[in-house]
Specification:
The complex is a heterodimer of chains A (375) and B (286). Chain A has 375 residues and is of the alpha+beta class. Helix content of chain A is 38%, strand content 26%. Chain A contains 14 helices and 18 strands. In chain A, the strands form four sheets. In chain A, strands 7, 8, 9, 10, 11 and 12 form a six-stranded antiparallel sheet that branches. In chain A, strands 13-15-14-16-17-18 form a six-stranded mixed sheet, sandwiched between helices. In chain A, strand 14, helix 10 and strand 15 form a beta-alpha-beta unit. The longest helix of chain A is centred in the C-terminal third of the chain and has 14 residues. The model of chain A has no long low-confidence stretch (mean pLDDT 90). A seven-stranded mixed sheet of chain B has the order 3-4-2-1-5-6-7, sandwiched between helices. In chain B, strands 9-8-11-10-12-13-14 form a seven-stranded mixed sheet, sandwiched between helices. With 286 residues, chain B is of the alpha/beta class. Chain B is built from nine helices and 14 strands. Classes of the chains: A alpha+beta (375), B alpha/beta (286). Chains A and B meet through helix 10 and strand 15 of A and helix 4 and helix 5 of B.
Chain lengths: 375, 286
């Protein structure tokens, strides 16, 4: 779960990290009120993606009137496919230095990596490319977390030795997000040192692990409702389906994530674009196929559906019966191409033909058929 | 054949669960040397025609088991992996999908103390050595024994490729699914290294997907390999920042793209199939 900035800051503050004064505003009036209370503020779009500054999602306001105008412009804006539901009005800081602090999962090393750099306020990936030595790194022992001397070494390596005491403390506080919230990425960029010597989180990113949601129901209850996800993805999640929304016109049902991805590639190769896909996993019983088709068809952009199933343990004839049942239960009229393969393939194809569904012989042929049928 | 051979004695952790029981049955059917099952509190009983034990350690001392298949639910799976390692199991295959990433990071660290122990998965279909046995959920009926090694991050694409190979008369030495999670046990490189040492494997199919850079590293190893290899990468059209069904299948910024993987294989002289049907074609022309 990717938290919004104000939510991430709420979590960081609960760990003892200082954050600037701020208020959430859902309307321009609320933004104006926040400004009259806090003083000069930054009006910041709350979306779970980076790059909102460049997209015009952050504006400075000196007066309540300016805050109202900025909020009017930002609320409802579309940033990388996310509609901005609300803004965070945050007190402006008197910045002396901007530092980068974060951790993420380093897949190559199968470990958490803590990173600290004196070059905060810019994209850390850009820093990594330009001057990799400007980022100090630490792989903490995942059982006991980082030790004091390791953190001191990290701070000195980053060239921030003059702040060794306060920075060590902040890093320890941030690290709590791993054992306590199952965070997989957290970033404070910039971590601001103000002219009067305070250290505060200027921005915050926090992503928690969906696989660990079962032990953090509290977090989900507090925040999930505010996260404006894709509504089809939300619906699919309720039905326990693995579903991904995309922006084309062909719906895809497959079993297995790899096969689904492979099918999207085939559709694009054939000149079409996938609207979404649903992974029905190993079972592929009629009920599951029906459930998947229902979610796929909720998206009005879908002009046709391609079902690509490999029957291993599930037999292809069972899948064929499931597809036929699901189609009639849903009274589905859109073009449908089904590619079945594996155990009992011939029987599966016979069932499809008998019911007026043309089977595709292989994935590539099926992809071409559905693209042609939706033209 | 690699990893699973005629000396393998296999137990199943979570054998009294629905999935564990069903697949233990299939494993036994194809001739796998299944010697026991573990289910805490049910020791002394029997399931799938093999004795049950309360702990892995008991199972090992009573049966001489050296390999395990784990089918326990996500909240308990990390512990099950460590229990198996502690009991001296040499090959741990974890099928469970949905294990928290931080649990797996701790497991990987724990396993550093067991350098002889190999972990396959989690969130993987397991492995099969046709004619010998399997641990996991790969359907045996589409396999056939031969000299093609296969290693993949995806379950169903593995089955597709196996079925196509079998249909073309190309048997497999061992088929290995490494899994779709971001924090994994054996990597592509680990498995490629094993196949490289196996004289009975002459050809290799490697099926990767977006996310991470394990494919790029394996490509580097294959540059000077004796194995005649074909690769396939899924997720070529995946948008940046979206998790594509597998927890590990995500392009982050400019990292983990299909393009980078395809280029790495091509630079190493490994042809990359555009569709799964092309895999067999490319493998046989070489």
């Amino acid at each position: 779960m990717k938290l919004l900035e104000y939510q991430a800051k709420e979590v960081l503050a609960s760990f003892g990290i200082a954050i600037p004064p701020g208020k959430v505003a859902r309307t321009p009036d609320e933004a104006a009120a926040a400004c009259s209370e806090i003083g000069p503020v930054a009006i910041k779009a709350q979306v779970p993606v980076g790059g909102r500054g460049k997209a015009g999602g952050i504006k400075l306001a000196q007066t309540p009137a300016q805050a109202r105008l900025a909020a009017e412009q930002i609320i409802g804006m579309d940033i990388k496919g996310f509609r901005v539901p609300l803004v965070y009005c945050e007190g402006a800081l008197d910045i002396d230095r901007e530092i980068y602090l974060g951790f993420t999962v380093d897949r190559d090393n199968r470990a958490n990596i803590l990173m600290l750099s004196a070059r905060g306020g810019m994209d850390i990936e850009a820093v990594a490319e330009e001057s990799p030595t400007a980022i100090a790194k630490l792989y903490p022992n995942p059982w006991r977390g980082p030790l004091d001397f390791e953190l001191r070494r990290l701070v000195f390596e980053a060239g921030l030795g003059d702040l060794v005491g306060p920075l060590t403390k902040v890093i320890k506080q941030l690290y709590r997000a791993i054992p306590e919230q199952d965070a997989i990425t957290a970033e404070i960029n910039p971590l601001v040192l103000t002219r009067d010597g305070q250290i505060l989180a200027g921005d915050a990113k926090l992503e928690t692990d969906e696989n660990a949601a079962f032990r953090h129901r509290d977090l989900e209850e507090r925040f999930a409702e505010m996260l404006e996800g894709d509504r089809y993805e939300v619906e699919a999640k309720k039905r326990n389906l693995t579903y991904v929304s995309l922006d084309g016109e062909i719906g895809i049902v497959g079993n297995g994530a790899g096969l689904c991805m492979g099918t999207l590639d085939l559709v694009q190769r054939a000149g079409g674009r996938a609207a979404n896909f649903c992974d029905i996993g190993g079972g592929a019983k009629a009920e599951v196929v029906q459930n998947a088709l229902q979610v796929i068809l909720m998206n009005p952009n879908v002009k046709g559906v391609l079902i690509n199933v490999f029957g291993g343990i599930t037999r292809a004839d069972e899948v064929a019966r499931g597809v036929v049942e699901a189609r009639s239960a849903l009274a589905m009229k859109l073009p449908l191409v089904v590619r079945l393969s594996g155990t009992q393939e011939d029987e599966g194809k016979r069932i499809l033909r008998e019911n007026g569904i043309e089977p595709g012989d292989n994935g590539w042929e099926a992809a071409q058929k559905i693209v042609a049928a939706t033209r | 054949m690699i990893l699973l051979d005629r000396n393998s004695k296999v137990i199943v952790q979570g054998i009294t669960g629905r999935e564990g029981g069903f697949h233990a049955e299939r494993m036994k059917e194809m001739g796998t040397a299944l010697v026991g099952g573990v289910s805490p509190g049910k020791g002394g009983g029997e399931a799938v025609g093999v004795p049950l034990f309360n702990t892995v350690a008991e199972a090992v001392s009573a049966t001489g088991a050296n390999a395990t298949g784990i089918f326990v639910p996500p909240p308990f799976a990390a512990d099950a992996i460590m229990e198996a390692a502690d009991a001296g199991i040499g090959l741990i295959v974890c099928i469970t999908e949905g294990i928290p990433i931080q649990d797996m990071i701790r497991v990987k660290h724990y396993l550093l103390s067991f350098p002889q122990t190999l972990l396959l998965g989690p969130n993987c279909p397991g492995l099969i050595t046709p004619g010998v046995g399997k641990i996991g959920i790969i359907p045996a009926q589409i396999s056939s024994a031969g000299h093609v090694g296969l290693v993949s991050r995806s379950g169903t694409l593995t089955y597709e490729a196996m079925a196509a190979l079998t249909k073309a008369g190309l048997g497999q030495s061992t088929v290995v699914g490494i899994g779709g999670d971001p924090v994994l046990g054996l990597s592509f490189s680990d498995v490629v290294t094993q196949f490289e040492k196996d004289a009975a494997t002459t050809h290799l199919v490697i099926i990767g997907e977006i996310g991470g850079s394990d494919e790029e590293k394996a490509a580097e190893l294959l540059r000077h390999s004796r194995l005649r290899t074909t690769a396939f990468i899924s997720g070529r059209t995946a948008p940046e920042g979206k998790r594509m069904g597998h927890a590990g299948a995500i392009v982050s910024g400019n990292k983990g793209t299909a393009k980078s993987k395809v280029e790495a294989f091509e630079a190493a002289g490994v042809p990359v199939a555009e569709t799964t049907d092309q895999i067999v074609e490319l493998l046989t022309v070489r």
